[in-house]
Structure formats: structure tokens, C-alpha cells
Q: What sequence folds into this?
């Protein structure tokens, strides 16, 4: 018996006109193994392993890929790995955070935003990105109200270099503010943390997009014996009409297949 896939379960990405799989592949582990908050260590996959993971994701019906300049060499590696497949992927990248010499630094100026997006286009070997999100340092409202990043992203959207933009923040207030102008908010929402639920509610009411990060609490979820934490996590997520897709950062083919099969079963039973 073949395992369920996500091919027939794509959903609108808010009002962007794009459609995405309910699971997206996060690629921090393709480019960075320092300063990442996972319960277990891991080895960055080589090119052949990464190519196989991307091929598996496509076969399972995943069309959304999430990357960022702060993910080490992730963008640089994805460019060559995705050659000849560009039309098959919705690519989400970010601006604002740089990761160098084991440390993060942040720059939300308009000038750096433009530089960052142009660099991402070059690394990813493409002339446009479907979505660019601001990689917040936690000072969400200050970034949105005092920095030039959103104005620059709006101009890049008008120029056709990005199709949509939004905010990957850390507060409900930031997410709500971000959606007043932006197309998408990436929020933390899982069995342990639901403080940003008002952002999901706003998105559902206003036709905005929601991507969920840390959907599985980065592997930290603990439940009663006999309860599948993956299924319980996805049941929570997809019970909310605002959720478009959840980003999972696994590099384990078995985990990826299990996640996809679980999401497919959850959605087909809705």
C-alpha cells in the first residue's frame, strides 16, 4: 500500500495567488549546525543526500521550501540543487539576520534589505522569490515601525523581484502589526506555545497567509504514553483555518515521510 502524499492537498497562501503544500521543507540543517536549538546533534547532509531529500520532498507533494541568509550555506547550496526545478518550488527566504563566525547580527535598514534580497536571488539562481520574510530579533514593533525593511520589501514587490513579503516574528503584537501591510506572518504555534494565536485569527479573517515554525516544538514535545506527538501537533495546527503550511526542518527521510503521511491523514479526515 502506498503512503499518502500531499499532491492533492495544496492550499492558497493567503491572497498571494500562490498555492502551497500544507508542509514546507525547512533547510537550516542544509547549511548550519551551530547555534541551532534541536534536542539532538546532526551532521549537515552532503550534496547527494541533500539532492535525495529534495527529490523525496517533491515526490511526497511538498512544493514549499524555506531558507534564509542566516541558515549558513543553505541558499548557496539550494541554487545548484534546484537547477531545472525552479517552477516546481515556492521559495521563501528572509532578510534582517546574518549569521557569521557562529554569531547572529541584525540589520533591518532599507539598504541592507535590498542587498540581502539581491544576494539571495543570485545564490538561489533565480530572478524572483515567491516570499521574503523579515527575520526578527524579537523587537518586532520597533522593526516594523522604525526601520526601513518593510518599505524596501514593498518596493521589491513592485519591481517584481519578490511576489510577497511578511514577517517572522516572536510576539503576537508584532505578527498583528506585520499583517496590516504584509502578505504573511510566520508564527510559532505548537502544543507547547500558542501565544501567537491572535495572529492566526487575524489572518483567517483578513485573507492573509500564515506559515507555522516550530510546529513540532523543534522535537521537544512530550505527551502521554500512546499519544503520537506528531499527529497531535498537526491536528492542533490544521484545526485553525488561518494556517496555510507548517515548516518542518527534518533531514531524516523516515521522519519526512511520516510527517507527510500524518498531515495527509489529518487533512483527509477534516
A:
Amino acid at each position: 500500500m502506498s503512503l499518502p502524499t500531499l499532491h492533492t492537498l495544496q492550499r492558497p497562501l493567503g491572497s498571494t495567488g500562490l498555492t502551497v503544500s500544507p508542509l514546507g521543507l525547512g533547510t537550516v540543517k542544509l547549511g548550519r549546525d551551530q547555534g541551532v536549538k534541536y534536542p539532538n546533534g546532526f551532521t549537515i547532509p552532503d550534496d547527494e543526500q541533500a539532492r535525495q531529500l529534495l527529490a523525496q520532498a517533491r515526490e511526497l507533494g511538498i512544493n514549499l521550501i524555506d531558507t534564509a541568509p542566516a541558515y549558513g550555506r543553505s541558499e548557496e547550496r539550494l541554487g545548484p540543487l534546484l537547477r531545472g526545478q525552479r517552477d516546481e518550488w515556492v521559495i521563501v527566504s528572509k532578510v534582517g539576520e546574518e549569521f557569521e563566525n557562529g554569531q547572529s547580527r541584525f540589520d533591518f535598514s532599507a539598504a541592507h534589505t535590498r542587498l540581502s534580497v539581491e544576494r539571495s536571488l543570485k545564490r538561489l539562481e533565480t530572478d524572483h522569490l515567491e516570499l521574503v520574510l523579515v527575520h526578527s530579533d524579537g523587537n518586532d514593533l520597533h522593526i516594523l515601525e522604525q526601520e526601513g525593511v518593510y518599505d524596501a520589501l514593498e518596493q521589491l514587490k513592485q519591481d517584481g523581484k519578490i511576489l510577497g513579503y511578511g514577517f517572522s516574528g516572536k510576539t503576537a503584537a508584532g505578527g498583528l502589526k506585520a499583517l496590516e501591510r504584509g502578505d504573511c506572518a510566520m508564527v510559532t504555534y505548537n502544543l507547547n506555545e500558542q501565544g501567537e494565536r491572535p495572529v492566526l485569527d487575524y489572518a483567517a479573517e483578513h485573507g492573509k497567509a500564515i506559515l507555522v515554525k516550530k510546529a513540532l516544538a523543534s522535537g521537544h514535545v512530550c505527551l502521554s504514553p500512546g499519544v503520537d506527538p506528531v499527529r497531535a501537533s498537526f491536528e492542533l495546527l490544521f484545526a485553525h483555518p488561518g494556517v496555510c503550511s507548517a515548516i518542518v526542518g527534518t533531514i531524516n527521510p523516515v521522519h519526512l515521510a511520516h510527517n507527510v503521511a500524518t498531515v495527509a491523514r489529518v487533512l483527509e479526515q477534516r
